[in-house]
Amino acid sequence: MDSLDSLDSLVRDREVECTHILALNLDGYLVHFKTNSMSLVAELTDYYQFFLANEEQQDRAPDRVVTGLQCAAQDIKGDWAVKQPDPGKAKVKEHILNVEGGKLIYKVLTGLYLLFKGPQRFCFGPLEDHPNQVVNFINNMHLEHLLSLGGQLFHASGVCLGNNGLGMAGLSGKGKSTLALRLLQRGMDLVSNDRLVVSEKAPGLLMQGITKYPRINPGTVINQPELAGIVSAKDLARYKAMTFDELWMLEEKYDAFVEPAFGCSFTLNAKMRMFVALDWDRNSSAPLRLEKRDPDNCIALVRNVMKSPGVMLPEASTRIPEAVVEPYLALLAQCDFYVLSGRVDFDEAADKVKAIVQTYD
User: Fold this and answer.
1) Is the pTM of the predicted complex or chain greater than 0.85?
2) CATH architecture of the region 152-214+256-357
3) CA-based, 20 to 30 A from 355: which of 15, 83, 134, 244?
4) Of 263, 286, 266, 291, the residue nearest 276 (C-alpha)
């Protein structure tokens, strides 16, 4: 494409092709995904199988319409700005172009474009090759809604026992998703993987999540028999032949659909009674310790939880242009804050965490 005029033409002229509708109920927030691709609808129906709107909900006006146009890769000319990677990351993933009334985002690694223009949410490009990118785009609509109600964005996972929940977070590779799965194995339910919105709701805190399933590594697969069916027998044998360190460093990921694997629910909300900061070390020989701490004395660990909304959540970023530590400390002071340190032992840690959650009324 030679100009932004061509972009307007593509959106205007080809949006009419998007006649297939997938209606989703994301904890009461209704999203209609419109597309021209039946195969993409089938893929997303499988992913969101536990979050499909029922007949009554399908007849209601949606809270948000998201349009996805499957088409050839595009080349849109313009004065693109490079979004620098987040702290601790190396890859440039997005370029940003200002357009009248909004922004166009180019996903460098997949070749997809995401348009935010007024209320319009439009993605286009080779969507069928990258359904997870479309899932993320849809989920960000729900996340934007949750943040519009107030609260703070946490880079954290959440699980619950009944309505009593806990959040958990740590630097990339610390194993929060694996620990969450160990807790599901022990009869808990999933609230969210990797993103939580935490807000005050007297008495205490409310944590709300989005429908993003845990992306797990091969080491997690071979150590939890419930998950073995998500990989081929050939890959499972290959993983079992690897050392602990080889598995830890392997960059292969799978979606863990927790409902059939563990017989649990994906609840999307719970009271946040407890928060666990993962500060353990896989190279440590020290005993595993789960200690209650004052978050004011653990600023470095609290900073691992912080997440700015950024370009993918344009409305929320006007309220929170940059994450700062004080709101996180204020929220975490209203629940029990624990630090997990010493050697990595997911089973021992899960037993200790669940024992505490069971004490809550």
Assistant:
1) yes
2) 3-Layer(aba) Sandwich (3.40)
3) 244
4) 291
